[in-house]
User: What shape does this take?
Amino acid sequence: MKGRLLLLALLMLGWMPAKADHPAECRVAENLLESSFRLPQVARALVKKRLTVLVVGAGSSQLPGSSGVANAYPARLEHALAQQLSGVQIKLTTDVKAKRTAAEMVKALPAALSAAKPELLVWQTGTVDAMLAVDPDQFSQALDAGINIAHSAGADVVLINAQYSPRTESMIALGTYAEDMRWVALQHEIPLFDRFSIMKLWAGLGTFDLYSATKKLDMAEQVHDCIGILLADLVVTAAKPEELPTNGSR
Assistant: This one.
């Protein structure tokens, strides 16, 4: 019933997501987007035409250089949301610091959520935990705690797992922590943006040369742009209430 009311409200206000015309390199990975779970707080924010997003992450949410902030995926996400959600005021803030584990991020979450008051928390984590070989159970417990804190603060959550790198694949068990995040997301019924699988697909198809991407800033910027675009797609799709039943449906 709530989904129907939200859909009616969105239609009455004339809100419809603009059809995105994405670069070909981004579209390659569109089939890996998962939006089985809804974002009800985001949907309500769209009715009010004001959406506040908080991105919490570690080093892989950043890019170096004077234009790094503007070209990293949080800023590209904000830009993509503004393009797709015409008439909706988008405000995005970040709490991004290198070398933080999930548990360390959880400690900072209450203050960050209180300051930003977001309807959506985008939480990127897992890379540092994998590098430090944090116990997977402790990692999952930290995820549980962070999600519960965000929900208690009235924010939906989208998890983002580690980025894929063929240079470190044999040295760091990133896949283990990526799968832990998938399991936690399923338990909490929240969306997971599977950055790890998306970037692994790009590497396998030769869409991006991720082996040398660490030395090519323009390549990294393209990757972040696509991440922002695809993440916006996931958010918009997951915020859309389920369709009203057609005539004759029960």
About this structure: The two ends are 13 Å apart (CA to CA).
